[in-house]
Task: structure prediction
Amino acid sequence: MIESKKNGRQRCCVGGAAIIIFAALLSVTGCGEQNWEAREAMGFSLPLLDGSSEINLEDYRGQVVYLTFWASWCVPCRQEMPYLEQLRERHDGEDFEVIGINVEESLSGALQFAEDYNLSFPLLWDKDRAVSKAYMVPGFPTHYVVDRRGKIRYSGLGFTLKDVAAVAQEVETLLAESVDAAD
Result:
């Protein structure tokens, strides 16, 4: 009987520990929208998918930027892209830009994806995933919303239709702020 109680307590402790670890992982991996103390977005320079030029994040200082890390084989990425195109069109002329960062080793799938979805925002190629690693991207799509001062203010992993309103609100909130707004 005593041994049975001991085993029950051990199972309870193991189960409790598993719940705590799971909760900690969710908070670290960015499942859902995250809003925390703003940190500086790491600068980068990457080529456009078509190779015509390079884009440097620093060139967008003073604008709100939605960075999305994606791949053509990623089903939620395929769902997200039409909404990002609409979001960009809705805020045309408002110091807002969407930048898609593709992580595939081969360009063919990414170029076909861009053509299929008729995407007009800059699509960059992170061939060796150096930028993805620097941003600690846990999965695809992962997005970061960068404010006018170059600070990451929101992030998210994955995409569902529930995210559409949240992302629109994030962008509108940041567009309403001045460049000099405090954290």
